[in-house]
Amino acid sequence: MSTTGQIIRCKAAVAWEAGKPLVMEEVEVAPPQKHEVRIKILFTSLCHTDVYFWEAKGQTPLFPRIFGHEAGGIVESIGEGVTDLAPGDHVLPIFTGECGDCRHCHSEESNMCDLLRINTERGGMIHDGESRFSIDGKPIYHFVGTSTFSEYTVVHSGQVAKINPEAPLDKVCIVSCGLSTGLGATLNVAKPKKGQSVAIFGLGAVGLAAAEGARMAGAGRIIGVDLNPKRFEEAKKFGVTEFVNPKDHDKPVQQVIAEMTDGGVDRSVECTGSVQAMIQAFECVHDGWGVAVLVGVPSKDDAFKTHPMNFLNERTLKGTFFGNYKPKTDIPGVVEQYMNKELEVEKFITHTVPFSEINKAFDYMLKGEGIRCIITMGA
């Protein structure tokens, strides 16, 4: 490409301060350094994690910053030492990575790379700690190594999944975070057998993706648990067949589910981050074979309390990060599941806005409207 090795000037939606609308700015994007690639972003999406760190209520604020981590694009140029990607490749940048060299990357059981595991506090690139974004010579910080709310971004090559060029990027861009997190929690960790019952706690985007995984696995009953009854109708599209609103019952949810299922569900997946829901999700699985999987991120001071007999009675509790998918190795396969019509992605996409109206996507999420909003770059 004619821009290789040169600074690119392009539009980016910059967060100048916590909780304030993003501002469309012209930024300078430096060329990729060692083990980095520069990507032209074509479509991006808003995830709750972006909103959480934009609001900066529970962590050290780092501004000005370019958020965004669910996206699809095309490699514009590559830095020194990049051998598995080339200009023109269709890719999904991912908030966590796979260096290929550490013990986690060598383990078949883990996807928690030592080098490239998610880091929400880092504002520069791993290679030199510097930002590749600037305005008038002043750095604009990165977010989780992806910063996809920019027409061009620079990402470590270990955080870039090369995918089938036939896959529509305006659909599969959402595979790079929330969808895979929920889907993999069910398919890779809970692993329900055909005909088994699955309870999903929390019917937001991640919970619906967990339900989609249960549907794909051939679950016999998928029970959705949520405090918001408005979510129940939408969840039917994802295979959820029964609903429990804890507010409707004067006994613990785990007891309600046990009574519905003759002693408990075979599998449960918790996608809320509420420690109460985590305990309920564990205690509602059947003794002897039940497996509960925790996906939601708890508050700092939370403690999980349950009686040890729940374990001794052969219930299993597991946790997962990014659905146990290795970003570079496994995510291209999730895209293929979509291409083979096994995974249904379109139903997650409820809104589309042009890049110039990105703040609308924040409004939708803050109001709890819709599941995923696709932001079309260059529009």
UniProtKB/TrEMBL annotation:
CDD domains: alcohol_DH_plants. One of its GO terms (biological process) is response to water deprivation. Its EC number is 1.1.1.1. Transmembrane segments: none annotated. Pfam families: ADH_N, ADH_zinc_N. Its main location: cytoplasm. Residues 34-164 form the Alcohol dehydrogenase-like N-terminal domain. Signal peptide: none annotated. GO terms for molecular function: alcohol dehydrogenase (NAD+) activity; protein homodimerization activity; S-(hydroxymethyl)glutathione dehydrogenase [NAD(P)+] activity; zinc ion binding. InterPro entries: ADH-like_C, ADH-like_N, ADH_Zn_CS, GroES-like_sf, NAD(P)-bd_dom_sf. Residues 205-335 form the Alcohol dehydrogenase-like C-terminal domain. Keywords: Cytoplasm, Metal-binding, NAD, Oxidoreductase, Zinc. One of its GO terms (cellular component) is cytosol. Its cofactor is Zn(2+). Homodimer. Belongs to the zinc-containing alcohol dehydrogenase family. This is alcohol dehydrogenase.
